[in-house]
Amino acid sequence: MKVFKAISPLREYLAARSSAGQQILFVPTMGALHTGHVSLVERAKADGGEVVLSIFVNPTQFNNPEDLEKYPRTVGEDLAAAKEAGVDCVFLPSVEEMYPCGDKATVSLKAGKMAELWCGASRPGHFDGVLTVVSALFNIVGPDKAYFGEKDWQQLQLIKRLVLEQHFPVEIVSCPTMREADGLAMSSRNVRLSADERLKALCLSRALEFVSQGIGQQLALPELLQKARVMIEAEGFEVDYLAVINDEVLPAETAAEAVRVLGAMNVGAVRLIDNMPAGFSLNVTDVNQNNM
Ligand code: AMP
């Protein structure tokens, strides 16, 4: 497995792989790799080609300095996990390499309407940072395909728009959310939870499942969302948002236009997000047996 910290040799290497007829298959991450990230790599490997994984904790997408500081960084383990997963090439740039004029970059992309609500509302500037860094990474790596998780649904929709509107010649492949046995969505931030918080954090996926299964049944969407809010608050956590959205990532007015259920909550200083399609089941029977 090749590891590059600098852009020029990475570009040279990938140009040679491309010339040799390999598709460039790109999995961007912020590291602290878990099974969710590995599932993206596996999906890329199944497509056949040169699998490139980037690890870069992008400062411009953190609106909260404490979150940036506390974000888990486990490069040694990540490289071992990447190798084990069959990654061909890792790009591991420094902040200076990615932002040659400093991370208060001169040029930044601005996410539009689709970023106004949900994570965009509670994390001002977050999606501007995401789009700016993903665009820079696409320019560096020049992928034929790039793999993103549905776990970050709003981000995924914005990246599809980025590619469409900025005419990047890349196909975006969306990959389903990987979950722990009890239904909790895997996240690099889960390691920051205490054992008690980890158990209780299940309430987010449970609440979303409740809404997801209730869509089009007796209760109207606002009532479903209100009950879900109570399920989360009963565990002592603060709801950031809960929403049923349409395909424009705006609130669904009716069950018929409901595409996805989204939620975010704060567990102390740790912010967790999750989402699922309408009518989704976690397929978890006995939560107690499956808890870590
Ligand atoms: P991150 O390192 O959190 O920026 O995530 C890198 C990529 O992995 C993004 O495309 C995420 O959507 C994806 N990802 C994160 N968690 C999961 C998960 N539980 N299942 C599938 N994909 C995930």
What distinguishing features does this structure have?
292 residues, alpha/beta, Rossmann fold, six-stranded parallel beta sheet, three-stranded antiparallel beta sheet, 12 helices, 18% strand, globular, disordered C terminus, binds adenosine monophosphate
Q: Can you tell me about this structure?
A:
With 292 residues, this protein is of the alpha/beta class. Helix 8 links the parallel strand 5 and strand 6. The strands form two sheets. Strands 1-4-3-2-5-6 form a six-stranded parallel sheet, with helices on both faces. The chain has a three-stranded antiparallel sheet with strand order 7-8-9, covered by helices on one side. Helix content is 40%, strand content 18%. Adenosine monophosphate binds next to helix 2 and strand 5.
Secondary-structure map:
Layout lengths: L1 E3 L2 H13 L4 E6 L5 H13 L2 E6 L9 H6 L4 H11 L3 E3 L3 H4 L20 H4 L3 H16 L3 E5 L3 H14 L4 E5 L19 H6 L1 H13 L6 H13 L4 E8 L14 E8 L2 E8 L9 H4 L2
Parallel strand pairs: 1-4, 2-3, 2-5, 3-4, 5-6
Antiparallel strand pairs: 7-8, 8-9
Helix pairs in contact: 7-8, 10-11
Bound molecules: adenosine monophosphate.
Adenosine monophosphate binds next to helix 2 and strand 5.
